[in-house]
Amino acid sequence: MISVSRFSIHTFTDTDNLTFSAIEYSKFKHGSQKFAQKLGRELACGFMESVEFKNFYQNISNNQIVICSAPWKNIPVASTSLKDFFISEFNPVWSIDNQAVEDLKVHRAHSYNEDYGAMSKEQREQVITSDDFSIDKTFIKGKVLFFIDDIIITGAHERRIQSLLETVGFEGWVLFLYYAEYEIKGLRKDRQSPTEYIKANPEARLWQRANNVENQIVKLNKEKRAMIERDAPREALK
Questions:
Q1: Which ranges in the chain belong to alpha helices (H)?
Q2: Shortest CA distance to 224 belongs to which of 28, 116, 105, 216?
Q3: Are 42 and 10 in contact (CB under 8 A)?
Q4: Cβ count near 128 (within 10 Å)
Q5: Which listed site, 136, 202, 203, 210, has its alpha carbon 20 to 30 Å from 58?
Q6: Cα separation of 133 and 72, whole Å?
Q7: How far apart are CA 178 and CA 40, in angstroms?
Q8: What is d(CA 218, CA 91) in angstroms, rounded to the nearest whole number?
Q9: Global pTM value
Q10: pLDDT tens across 197-230, in order?
């Protein structure tokens, strides 16, 4: 049996009422390590000070924790840096009375060529379910799993991870930690689709802009790596 919980520091419904800096978040999605560190530390500290952590601690204090970011293939996604800085803040505190946390990559078979940030909920579900995720089922057996990502919109990745864990026969505690949550809690309560909410509130597109930028950066990094492999002159890499 899998016991699933979720924690997020920020919950928002539109970009006019953010409880975090849109500029800092955008720089983080651009690849800024400075703001990845800031957001990662904020997530770790917020989690350790939360009621959710106290309740979670009572159940898993004697278990080994394994922490993963969102799945990736060749190029680490932004949440990988978020995860790294979360660990650097969380681990020194946790390891005082418990085993140091372990780090694990969730592999994916494909990278997105499409603009994932602009996809509808249905399109996201189709892309993700057609992708192949893999995880070391022997390594995670009997452990507690943390999955860290910067933001949850439709929950498609979270559902795909849960499906993966069920497929490999994992049993135990799973916690999804997010820096921000796009009003999923309220929408679930009211049975309202996030996609429909966006259509009715077109100003709520921070996440789409950030994902668009991230996709552009990934594309540029691929082009730069290809140029390096072709021994392109230094001036061309600038």
A1: 22-30, 33-48, 51-60, 78-94, 121-130, 137-140, 156-167, 184-190, 194-200, 206-229
A2: 216
A3: no
A4: 21
A5: 136
A6: 9
A7: 10
A8: 29
A9: 0.72
A10: 555 555 445 555 555 555 566 566 667 677 777 7
